Amino acid sequence: MTMNAPMRRMRSSEIVMDGAPKDSDRTVFVGNLSQDVDEVILYELFTQVGPVERITLPLHDDPGSDRVSHKGYAFVQFADGKVNSARHSVVYAMKVMNDIYLYGQRIRVSRSNSRAGTQDESLLEPPLLPGDAAMVEI
User: Which range is least confidently modeled, 7-16, 62-71, 107-116?
Assistant: First the structure.
């Protein structure tokens, strides 16, 4: 089988802290992003729930366009913190950040790996800190 069209390499824009390798167990998928959202905004938003070590924002591969645009989704990877593990941050991010509005669009936050739901997430749930209860009630 031969392919007539040239293969395209997926381009992405990334923020990576300390050369962190990709790890899907520590990563959330963030969908329905406005074109106004960039890596810096995602970094600032998601550091509210845990230490972020990688943000990947896939870009459209359109050589005919002068404007660079992303595909409307991103991946946010958490690091182990002093208080909670990265896996706690993943669960917390799904609870706190899912369905919030960012630039007028309701974002979707879910696990990025295919093993979602295979482990009892109540065991990974981080303890609530003072002031967190109001955030969970979004």
Answer: 7-16
- In one-letter notation, the amino acid at residue 105 is Q
Dihedrals phi, psi of 89, to nearest 5 degrees: -65, -35
SS (H, E, C) 97-131: HCCCEECCEECEEEECCCCCCCCCHHHCCCCCCCC
Cα separation values, 117 from 60, 101, 125, 126, 132, Å? 31, 25, 13, 17, 24
pLDDT in tens, 88-109: 999 999 999 999 999 999 999 9
Ordered domains of the chain (ranges, CATH): 11-115+126-136 (3.30.70.330)
Compute the distance between CA of residue 6 and CA of residue 138 in angstroms, rounded to an integer: 46
